[in-house]
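Expect chain and fold; thus:
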Amino acid sequence: MAVFKSARVTVLLPTVVLILSSMLWGLVWWPLKYLHAAGIDGLPVIAIGHAGVSLVLLPFFWRQRSQCQSGWHWLITIALLGGAANVTFNVAMLYGNVVRAMVLFYLLPVWGVLGGRLFLGEKIDFIRLSSMLLALIGAFIMLGASLELFSQFTWPDLVALLAGFLFAMNNIVFRVTTQLPVISKVTALFMGGCVLASVPLVTGWAHTEPLNINVIGLSLAIGLGWWLLATLGSQWAVTRMEAGRAAVIMVMELVTAVMSTALIGGKMLLLHEWLGVACVLIATLLEASRPETNDHAPDGTA
């Protein structure tokens, strides 16, 4: 009985952590939109926030360097994939319609399920397929279930699509590299995000107003108090579960974004939005309440 309870906790805890982390990601649009409305461009906020997190994590990364000696190529891959995923996601939230960008980002279950099958050999059984389709149907319904939506793509929409793909691929790399400490992988992710967000600013491709101490402080607060917590939670969890399972559960981020934009904006959710939310919640419950279909990878080192 004790062994059974321990096994259930082993499966349940990463699921709960991933749901809570996804809800944090679903609220990340709020401080970014607030700063943008105040005339503060997003790229400096993203770059400063990622730089602050990188500096805080660097001592831990340095202590774990001996464990990373044989995996530098993976850390560089995470820096590129994860850093680009973070930057493109935040840019899409900042410059696009929050709900629309979230829905397009959450083609994530497709990339996660297919990537898990191709690269990790994860089975796509009836429940996995059903939950993936339910999540996608829910996302489509939230957008209004109109095919005309696909003819109205803007550049933030494309960035949101790219962010979802990059995020799913990064999750797969996190799961494959269980021999590397999670903290080191998260450090590489934020360092990559800092560099990628800084390039347009340094090269002059993106123009921004001079920063003051308040903006820098707010940027660091968002990075350390929001992105770091959400990233550590989500990446710790995805290392301990199937990529397809994680991709479906993370659609909770979309539900949080839809409901928070309505609440903060003082609006009521429409019927089709409630139906979409219901589909996503059912998909999440299907994945969260079942055992893994195959042996998951060994736990990564914190």
In short: DSSP finds 13 helices and no strands in the chain.
